[in-house]
Design brief:
Layout (H helix, E strand, L loop, with lengths): L1 H7 L7 H14 L4 E5 L3 H11 L4 E8 L13 H7 L2 E11 L2 H13 L5
Parallel strand pairs: 1-2, 2-3
């Protein structure tokens, strides 16, 4: 689809290498870093690998339906990332076994909800 869109909007450039470099640079310069991983796959790898450059993330939240038993990357729990140095040992982590499209908006809404009290 991006290929066809590029004919209607010339100048559209997607540079994966530049994206990874920017993500790594942001990670290196951060005083504290956390990951909110919605789903899994390539995006999860890119974000978690960027944390390797700073000796691990300080916080991590995984939201997906992946199960550990099938060996998929999405199914891996945060403690597996600790073993690789992608999350610092002793960091606050959680994995929410749920559909991210349903749960993440609820988490954001509850974070910014105001009480009438």
């Amino acid at each position: 689809m991006i290929f066809f869109h590029s004919y209607k909007s010339p100048g559209l450039v997607i540079d994966i290498v530049q994206d990874i470099r920017k993500l790594n640079d942001i990670s290196l310069k951060a005083k504290k870093a956390g990951m909110i991983i919605l789903g899994g796959g390539v995006c999860k790898h890119q974000i978690a690998n960027a944390m390797l450059f700073r000796n691990g993330a300080d916080y991590a939240v995984y939201i997906n339906t992946g199960q550990e038993f099938d060996g998929s990357d999405s199914g891996a729990r945060p403690d597996e990332a600790v073993s690789w140095g992608k999350i610092k040992a002793g960091s606050q982590t959680v994995k929410v076994y749920a559909d991210a499209t349903l749960v993440f908006p609820l988490l954001v809404a509850s974070t910014f909800a105001r009480s009438d009290e």
